[in-house]
Write a structure and sequence with these properties.
Chain lengths: ~200, ~100
Amino acid sequence: MDDNEWYGLVRDGADEGWKLVWERVVEPESRSMRSAEMMERFSLTAGDLMGMLFDDMIGRRKIDLYRGEGSFEGWLKRYVRGYVLNADPNKHGEISIDHAHPDADGEGEAMTLPVQDRETLRVEAWRMTLYFFRKLWNEDPERCYIHLLKTRFFLTSEEIREFLDVSSAANVDQIFSRSVKFMRESWRKWEAGGK
Amino acid sequence: MKTPGDKTIAFSFHSHPTKDMKMRWQAKLTFPPGSTAETVLPITVVDGDGNPVESAVFEFAGQKLDVRDGEASMTYADFVAGKHSVPIWLHRPGMKPVPGVPIFA
């Protein structure tokens, strides 16, 4: 049976087509190393996967999205793999499999949509660092100078002592330690308040 | 009081974040290698478009420094004497003074 014929049977809900789905897609995937362990962890059975696949394909007419590009088996496996990944209770986002390329290797991870924008988080972290640095400046600018000289210009404590006319290198270390602590505590307070 | 002989150190400052580009400015204080107390430290001051500020007073490290054509200066000794001073302002004629902050970079 070729893909077109199989697709037609599945689309029409024919037992023969769905029997093949079980034998070639759902059952092998549920036994695969990449899915079996996760399914056990998330209390998911092969029957559950079959039910979800049927609901999507027939109930929601996702079957109409198949364009005949790549193998039908591979296309169905991507859905099944998506159900397994989506069962992870720690995953708060959604997994989109509608646009998964049928010729892809079947690695479900490729279908995962990020639930947080890393770039936004990076910008936010940088913005907050600048904000805390400003707060540190308002505490005592000398702390900021020491912070910069240590972390940006990699000066030794002795060099900083000479640079800023601080009484001793030990004092420089103490001030630096306080400034790091201040930045960390500011982060901690902000995160506690932000969450 | 001296800076490393093999490194140029520079601290940068910019205006408090503001949407008005005309109000923005940025300043850079540079310590040439091997600076000592009497060394004159160059300061460059540019506006939001990166053009030198023609005329202004840069308030920094407890000093009020004249800015002409984007350039000001102070001695290293004055900088160290004012190392605990918090206020940073740029006063431009005909404009409201704009406070500044250090750049963590």
